[in-house]
């Protein structure tokens, strides 16, 4: 595996397991940008904000987990793509109301943009409406 793939995988695992920005910062440029065409993440514009958002998901969804299905590097484009499945059950406090006991299983893709060995941006492709409906949040 290349150093780029190693960096992207380590970042993805730290971020998606809810370890927060402190665990993710070492893989990223301080000004790394984030984007996702979803209502749930409309106000999130930096990777730091997204890492903290994911850390916050561990409260309402304490069993939150992910499974990487595929990871690939596009050296010409300078990016790594990760396809994963996120799962979890709303059993903790938080979210839009009392715990629903409902489970989510949602596919998503990260396009991780690299710049001189560090992450400069992340684009998340995710159907938040479908995922939130599974949890009973929509």
Short descriptors:
138 residues, alpha+beta, five-stranded mixed β-sheet, 28% helix
Q: What's this entry about, in short?
A:
With 138 residues, this protein is α+β, with helices and mostly antiparallel strands.
Unreliable stretches, pLDDT < 50, 5 or more residues?
none
Beta-strand share of residues:
35-45%
- Classify the helix fraction into a percent range: 25-40%
The end-to-end span amounts to 40 Å
Whole-number radius of gyration? 15 Å
Instruction: State the shape.
Output: elongated
Spell out the helices and strands N to C. HHEHEEEEH
Strand order of the largest sheet: 1-5-4-3-2
Major sheet size, sense and barrel closure: 5 strands, mixed
Could you say which structural class the secondary elements and strand pairing correspond to?
A: alpha+beta
Mean pLDDT: 96
Number of strands: 5
Number of helices: 4
In words, what does this structure look like?
By secondary structure, the protein is α+β, with helices and mostly antiparallel strands. A 5-stranded mixed β-sheet has the order 1-5-4-3-2. A hairpin with a 2-residue loop joins β4 and β5. It is elongated and about 45 Å long.
How is the secondary structure organized here?
Blueprint: H1 3-16, H2 20-24, E1 28-36, H3 47-57, E2 65-74, E3 79-89, E4 103-115, E5 118-126, H4 128-135
Parallel strand pairs: 1-5
Antiparallel strand pairs: 2-3, 3-4, 4-5
């Amino acid at each position: 595996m290349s150093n780029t793939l190693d960096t992207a995988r380590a970042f993805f695992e730290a971020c998606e397991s809810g370890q927060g920005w402190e665990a993710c910062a070492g893989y990223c440029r301080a000004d790394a940008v984030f984007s996702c065409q979803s209502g749930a993440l409309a106000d999130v514009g930096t990777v730091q904000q997204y890492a903290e958002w994911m850390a916050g998901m561990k409260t309402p969804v304490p069993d939150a987990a992910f499974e990487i299905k595929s990871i690939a590097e596009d050296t010409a484009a300078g990016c790594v793509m990760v396809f994963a499945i996120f799962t979890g059950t709303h059993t903790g406090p938080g979210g839009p109301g009392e715990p629903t006991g409902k489970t989510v299983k949602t596919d998503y893709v990260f396009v991780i943009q690299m710049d001189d060995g560090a992450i400069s941006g992340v684009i998340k492709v995710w159907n938040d409406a479908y995922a939130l409906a599974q949890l009973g949040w929509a």
